[in-house]
Amino acid sequence: MVIKYKKPSPFLSPFVAHFWEKHSPENQQIGYETETVLPENYLNLTFSLGSAYFRSLEEKSPFAALNSPQLETLHTGHNFYKHQANNHIFGIKFLPGGLYPFVHLDFMDLINVSLEMDQIFGAEANLLAEELYQLPDFEGRIERVERFLSKQLIERRLQKFRFIQAGTQLLERQHPDAGIASLAEELNTNYKTLSRAFYEVIGISPKHFAQIQRFEHALELLFLKPEWSCTEIGYHLGYYDQAHFIREFKRFAHQTPSAYRESTGKVETVEQHKDFQQFLSLEHLLHYEVKVY
């Protein structure tokens, strides 16, 4: 099975992390029963171009068939997927808050859900899906989606997006102990205003965002830095002690850092896994050939 990736054009790079496409040929057996995708601060627009695939959230809901264009919102818990032969899924992964300037949505109540894309873009979403199905290759589909998104940009929503983007970038750089109050001060605002903007643009509080962000960094280091011990990684990421690191990691991963590291031990470490966050899905690491365009 193959998964393809490509970075966006300069115009979309402030908003989109990358485009992706996964394909399971009709005559190929799926090498796993269920794919588990760990929590992340990103969301996806997805188009099913082949047979239906199935999604469940945190094992609290039955698997639902997905064969229409979907907005899969930021998920703070595990997403579970079942794939089958002739699955062909094209997706756009947006940076935190990156979809906000393209839609008339407040994301406060839109986490851990899937929405039919025509609820957001109207009939254009289904027309776009039909065009993507007709196009012969990955890069052609990317070009079509980039044209579509360029026409959807809502200029008046850019200011709030840029404010939140500045906040997420500061969180990326600042020491974890600095706290959200320090972030608000850096942005010349107060905690209440900052928190309200995070909820509106991303869907969760700045504190929750920072916790998931640090969890993602832990996954990355556990996978890409095998020479570092779990204790060293916890210290590097600013956890109080090893017990704090293990407790926070288990909250999101449902396993210890050492257990996660052991599960990825058979995977060759390559830079593409970092660039496209492959470490969020063990099934991606173990069962898919990566092609970067």
From TrEMBL:
Source superkingdom: Bacteria
KW Transmembrane helix (keyword) present: no
Record-linked Gene3D superfamilies: Homeodomain-like
Alphabetized UniProt keyword annotations: DNA-binding, Transcription, Transcription regulation
Coiled-coil parts of chain: none
UniProt keyword Hydrolase present: no
Bilayer-spanning residue ranges: none
Pfam families reported for this sequence: DUF6597 (PF20240), HTH_18 (PF12833)
PROSITE patterns to which the protein is assigned, alphabetical: HTH_ARAC_FAMILY_2 (PS01124)
GO molecular-function terms, A-Z: DNA-binding transcription factor activity; sequence-specific DNA binding
Start and end residues of each HTH araC/xylS-type domain: 165-263
PANTHER family: HTH-TYPE TRANSCRIPTIONAL ACTIVATOR RHAS, HTH-TYPE TRANSCRIPTIONAL ACTIVATOR RHAS-RELATED
Protein name as annotated: Transcriptional regulator, AraC family
Species in which this protein is naturally found: Haliscomenobacter hydrossis (strain ATCC 27775 / DSM 1100 / LMG 10767 / O)
